[in-house]
Amino acid sequence: MGTNGMNNRRKFFKASAALIGGTIAMSIMKPLGLMAQTDSDDNTQEKDKLPLWGMGVDIEKCVGCGKCAEACKIENNVPKEPFYFRTWIEQYTVKNDGEVKIESPNGGIGGLKQSVPDKDIFKSFMVPKLCNHCTNAPCVQACPVGATYISPEGVVLVDDSYCIGCSYCIQACPYGARFMNPVTKVADKCTFCYHRISEGLQPACVEVCPTDARIFGDLHDKKSDLVKFLQKNPTEVLKPHLNTKSRVFYNGLSSEVR
Amino acid sequence: MEEHFQHLYQALSQVDGYIYPNEIDLHWGLMIVLYPYITGLVAGAFILASLERVFHVKVLKPTYGLALLTALAFLLVATMPLVSHLQHPFRSYEIFMTPNSTSAMAIFGFVYLWYLMAVLLLEIWFDYRRDFVIWSKTSKGFKKLFYQLITLGINDTDEKSAKLDDRLGYFITVIGIPSAFLLHGYVGFIFGSIKANPWWSTVLMPIIFLFSAMVSGVALVMLIYMVVSWIRKVDIDMKCLDTIARYLLFILIIDFTLESLDQIHRIYEAEESFDIISVLVSGKLNITLLVMQVGLGTIFPLSVLGLFQFYKPSERVRKFFYFLVGGMVLIGIFFMRWNVVIGGQLFSKSLSGFTSFKTVYSGMEGSVMAAVWLILPLFILAFLLWLMPPWKKVTYHE
Ligand code: SF4
Ligand code: SF4
Fold first, then answer.
1. Domain limits at B263?
2. ipTM (interface pTM)
3. Angle at Cα B293 formed by Cα B12 and Cα B260, nearest 5°?
4. Of B245, B287, B325, B343, which is least surrounded by CB within 10 A?
């Protein structure tokens, strides 16, 4: 009886260990690509032909009219309440005493107005913001289920049917570029108007900008406006110390901007 | 939804300085405060039990079974607040089906499962198996059925089999200690790895979480031991209680040192985020951090427990203060979690302004629900104690 019981127990022990181990191993192997791939993944050649989308923002040209933010909300069905933005414009005012005032009422929709009297202003400028489509995207790293991913063209996207709504990506994004959509209840953000660019169109914000402050294009295409913009201007990305390798490049970025 | 918008408009009117427009909606509320709190209680209680078993601290024997069952009761509830806070709770299983291997949160799911299935349940099972067999012969009804089923047909009760249970149980406890460390260290990593947030992003976060977990778990078991003894009308083993209190003191000292180190480091390096964080600590968090966490939750218990190492008042007085200190520590650690989770979202990642947080009563994220998640484990524990009372055991590990 004794040895029999011991055998039983050993079996039970082994079986449960195998079960747990198996489940864990399977789930780890899959994302690490250790399990046999069904479809051929040797599409590197294909990849070279694909564009690598990016955006340039010329701070010197932005007048803070807010047309881009407005167009974005309409184009992408973003809730109209002032807590949800795929893109918005910040107004920076550096006063003579060195104080920096930052404002973005309703994300700049309807146009930004200066609230500081002229005589107190040292300098003032507008900074359009959006998802930076980071190459090392912290949001993609954080998403527990892989609902946030980088498309082959370098666009950071969210799979609505997959997102569990944990908000971890929102915490992980250093730029405040994401929000929890109150209607779909999934994480939402700028897609560079993926549905438009796939058809050869420009993102809505770029199309409506009256001063061409936003330049959209293919970073692989040496003749694109974007590449020319990057060649001509000294550009900088936001929060470079975080090493997110952003693909939104700013010309005329001042150190007050974060 | 309308209610949520109203809430947000109100928050908008209270913004201080500049915050990114998407930051007005605070995403992690009370439920995410509870999650590390409850997980911490589990890890702490388990580590206390393991001390007794692995390091043969015999005086702690009266609390061994109690600590294990406490850990189980809380572990069963630990993921509830997390799942209920999801916008799509019914998709939560995706974390196990298609985990993203770079995500701290995804890997936590596996750490949790491992800990629950491979450590805690097995350890309890090996500890109780022989008792289940014996109890199944003397009890009736539901209990009898439960005991019969839970033995999984392994019904031998001889010395040799008890020895084997003991050996396997010991082995699991040994694995269990690093697992419990992993469990809670990992929770710390979920926050500590977010480089976007300077209040969270510190390499010390996992270890701070771990020690604060031990502090809270030990305090909880101490309280539960006292309460259960009163309910059972049995004498509290003062030697045991004094020892737990001494451990509590030591761990509190380490915990406090680590947290102070973190703050001193921040102050000394005074990086980009320093200005906003110092305003955060002295302003928005002054009550929850300085008064609740540091004052009531740390300094007061440290002083009392420290004093008792040199001067031992009567048992009655000691019991009273142990009870008080246990309660204070539990409150203090709750606010520690609060200060991390809520505090980390009160300032903007633009480092230029603050938003505010208001607790609501009703709803999935409200304080009523939070109370439910905190009280439920106590009911589960009561049930477990009724079903498998550690004090009625006839088999003891070495
Ligand atoms: S800006 Fe934020 S949302 Fe966009 S890719 Fe970077 S981390 Fe992700
Ligand atoms: S909210 Fe959705 S996209 Fe963001 S981390 Fe969670 S599951 Fe991923």
1. 27-341+359-392
2. 0.92
3. 105
4. B287
